[in-house]
Design a protein that fits this description.
The complex is a heterodimer of chains A (about 140) and B (about 260). Chain A is mainly alpha-helical and about 140 residues long. Chain A has helices at about 5-10, 15-55, 60-70, 70-100, 105-135. Chain A contains 5 helices and no strands. In chain A, helix 4 runs antiparallel to helix 5 (about 105-135). The model of chain A has no long low-confidence stretch (mean pLDDT about 90). Chain B is about 35% helix and about 25% strand. Chain B has 9 helices and 10 strands. Chain B has a 6-stranded mixed beta sheet with strand order 6-7-8-3-9-10, with helices on both faces. A 4-stranded antiparallel beta sheet of chain B has the order 2-1-4-5, covered by helices on one side. In chain B, helix 3 packs across helix 4, helix 4 crosses helix 5 (about 150-160) and helix 6 (about 180-195) runs parallel beside helix 7 (about 205-215). The chains are: A mainly alpha (about 140), B alpha/beta (about 260). Chains A and B meet through helix 1 of A and helix 2 and helix 3 of B.
Chain lengths: ~140, ~260
C-alpha cells in the first residue's frame, strides 16, 4: 500500500488512511482472533482425545479429566487475551506498514519488523495477563 | 475578470522551499500554471520533480512558501477547506496506485461513493463513462493486477477524473511503458486537455512525449535547487543558451563527470 503510493492516493482523494485502512483491519482482527482461539481450543481437545484413545483410555475418562482440569474461567480468560492479541497484531502490522520506506526491500523489512514487534508485544502482554490473572485467581 | 490576453492562473507556487531532514531540495520556486495548459516538469534524477509535484498536491509540507490552488493555499488549509481544495484536482501516481483489492470499476467509483450522494446505479454509470473516456471498455470488472501497465495508468487517470476536477497531476506518465503505449497515453492527455479543458501538470523525462503534449515546460536542476528554464519545448530546444538544457534536449552526457 505504501510502496505503490496507494496511501498517498487515499490522502489526495481526501480519504483518511487511518479510517479507511487501519480501523477496518483492527476491527476485523479483533473479531476474528477469539473465533480462531475457540477453533484452536477445539482442535487441541480433539487432538488430546485422539492421543488418549490410542493409549487405551476411554473417551469418557478423558472428558471427565478435562472437565476437572479446565475451568470456564480459563476459557474466558483465554478469549479475553485473544481480544488483546488481535488488537496488537493488527495494530503493529498496520503501524509497520505505514512506516514502510520506498522500494521493494522496504516491504520485506517492514514484514520482518512487524513479526518481531508482534512476537515481543504478545510475549510481554501475555506476561502481564498472567500476573493479573494470578492475582484475580482466574 | 481576466481579459483576452491575460490567462487565468490556476496554480501559483510562491517562493517555495522544500527540504527533507534539513537538506534543501528546492528553493525559491516561483511558478504559475495557467488554466487549460499542459505543463511538463522536467529534470534529471534527484532534481526534485516529484518533490515539487508532491508539494503541489499537498502531500508534503513546504519548509517555506505558499502554493495557491485556484486561489486557496493548500499548504495552510486543513479540514473542510483542505477537502475542498483536494476535490479540485486528481492525481495519477507513477505506479497507478489503484487499490489491488478492488476491481477497476470499484476503484473509479470510490471517490464518487465517498463524496457524492448519488445512487449506486448512477455511480456505476459515471464510473463506466470515465473508463470509456480513457479507452478502457470491457475491462471494468477486472482486478488491477490483471491489467497491463498502460491500462493501469489509464485506469488511474479515470479514477483521478471521477469527480470532474479542473486539474490533473500525472507523475511519470510514460515511465516503464513501451513507445506505442506511451504515445497512446500522450494522445489521451491531449484529447482530455482539448475536449474537457483540463489543466495538466505532468512529470516526465520522455523527450517525444514532452514535444507531443507540453505547451510549456519547466526544467529543474539539482545543483541550482530550482527552475533553470521555462518556456515551450521547441523554444528551449532551439534557443536555450544553458548547457544543462541543451544536454537534456539533445541527450548528451554531462561533461562534468
Amino acid at each position: 500500500m505504501k510502496v505503490r503510493e496507494e496511501i498517498d492516493a487515499l490522502k489526495t482523494m481526501g480519504l483518511d488512511p487511518v479510517r479507511f485502512l487501519i480501523v477496518t483491519r483492527v476491527v476485523a482482527a479483533v473479531g476474528m482472533t477469539p473465533l480462531l482461539t475457540i477453533f484452536a481450543d477445539l482442535v487441541g481437545l480433539i487432538g488430546g482425545a485422539v492421543v488418549m484413545l490410542s493409549l487405551g483410555f476411554p473417551l469418557i475418562t478423558y472428558f471427565h479429566q478435562i472437565q476437572y482440569a479446565v475451568s470456564y474461567g480459563s476459557i474466558v480468560g483465554g478469549l479475553v487475551k485473544s481480544f488483546a492479541f488481535g488488537i496488537l497484531v493488527a495494530g503493529i502490522g498496520c503501524l509497520r506498514g505505514l512506516q514502510t520506506g520506498t522500494g521493494a526491500t522496504a516491504v520485506g523489512q517492514s514484514t520482518t519488523s512487524a513479526v518481531v514487534s508482534g512476537i515481543i508485544l504478545i510475549a510481554i502482554t501475555d506476561g502481564i495477563f498472567s500476573v493479573v490473572y494470578y492475582y484475580l485467581g482466574v | 475578470m481576466a481579459s483576452g490576453s491575460e490567462r487565468e492562473v490556476i496554480i501559483r507556487v510562491m517562493d517555495l522551499k522544500a527540504a527533507y531532514d534539513g537538506q534543501v531540495i528546492l528553493d525559491h520556486i516561483n511558478l504559475e500554471v495557467y488554466a487549460g495548459e499542459v505543463l511538463a516538469i522536467l529534470g534529471g534524477s534527484g532534481s526534485g520533480k516529484s518533490t515539487l509535484l508532491k508539494h503541489m498536491i499537498g502531500l508534503y509540507k513546504p519548509a517555506a512558501g505558499k502554493i495557491l490552488i485556484d486561489g486557496e493555499d493548500i499548504t495552510a488549509a486543513s479540514g473542510a477547506t483542505r477537502l475542498k481544495i483536494l476535490r479540485k484536482f486528481g492525481v495519477m501516481y507513477q505506479s497507478g496506485a489503484l487499490f489491488g483489492s478492488m476491481t477497476l470499476l470499484e476503484n473509479v467509483a470510490l471517490p464518487l461513493e465517498e463524496f457524492t450522494d448519488l445512487p449506486p446505479e448512477a455511480i456505476r454509470l459515471i464510473a463506466l463513462m470515465k473508463l470509456e473516456r480513457v479507452g478502457l471498455n470491457g475491462v471494468a470488472e477486472r482486478m488491477p493486477s490483471e491489467l497491463s501497465g498502460g491500462m493501469q495508468k489509464r485506469g488511474a487517470i479515470a479514477r483521478a477524473m471521477a469527480l470532474d476536477p479542473r486539474m490533473l497531476f500525472l507523475d511519470e506518465l510514460s515511465a516503464g511503458l513501451d513507445p506505442v503505449t506511451s504515445a497512446e497515453l500522450d494522445q489521451l492527455v491531449l484529447s482530455l486537455a482539448h475536449s474537457l479543458k483540463i489543466t495538466f501538470i505532468v512529470v516526465t523525462h520522455e523527450l517525444p512525449s514532452i514535444f507531443t503534449i507540453a505547451d510549456r515546460v519547466i526544467m529543474l536542476d539539482k545543483q541550482e535547487k530550482g527552475i533553470i528554464a521555462i518556456g515551450s519545448p521547441q523554444e528551449l530546444r532551439d534557443h536555450s543558451d544553458d548547457p544543462r538544457v541543451h544536454q537534456f534536449f539533445f541527450r548528451q552526457a554531462s561533461s562534468e563527470n
